[in-house]
# Entry
Amino acid sequence: MPELPEVEVSRQGLLPYLPGQCVLAAIVRTPKLRHEIAPGLDSRLAGLRIDAILRRGKYLLFDCASSRGGGWLLIHLGMSGSLRLVPPATPAQKHDHVDLVFTHTVLRLRDPRRFGALLWHEGADVEAHPALATLGREPLADGFCGEWLYAATRGRRVPVKPMLMDSRLVVGIGNIYAAESLFRAGISPLRRAGRISLQRYRVLAEAIRATLAAAIAAGGSTVRDYVHSDGGAGCFQLSCAVYDRHAEPCVVCATPIRVLRQAGRSTFYCPTCQR
# Structure
């Protein structure tokens, strides 16, 4: 699943090309992805200028003249979605569900498993959209720090790794990045969130920031379907210290990496380095 780094890399890849451009046409080839696509969205988008492209959690937010009578297009890539810029004459393939046509390029949404979302918010206040209203704190924003994590987890008995993946608390930290951040911080994924000290949360907050920044610099992680807007692949997964390295030696102490299941997801960790 594309997580915060992959979505941010997609956003950055679109910035040189789309802001300031007008949507000439929108082509919707399916009535539904994870949610129904709003009827008439194609005609609503036609003629609107893309003023900005933002990100909130794992949603890409396209400002479609929202301050001038337009609105916001919200795109979630789901489990297998990707956005690509292709030449206007490029034929659509089986899983290419939506095109936004511009003068010199086409933004194409591909989603083989159809778990993504294409949502419309009328008007300027996009944070009021129900898909965004319950999202937690941005881990790369100024307000994300060890003090906040410590305060937010008092009394929490859940293990720290599933807590980090709860988008109601913190957005965009998927399985790979939770595992790698905890390894950087030396914290066991089994440790209860409410039993971690303030000092260790300070270390963890910085580890999360560093892990996400490294992932963005590496173009994200390509595990299955994710590709950049230019069709390239991410490579962060090639440098993982623990993720998907079951029984391989720890890069620090050579202890074999262990794996267990938490909240239905595989958790990789070093039992020696992480306490």
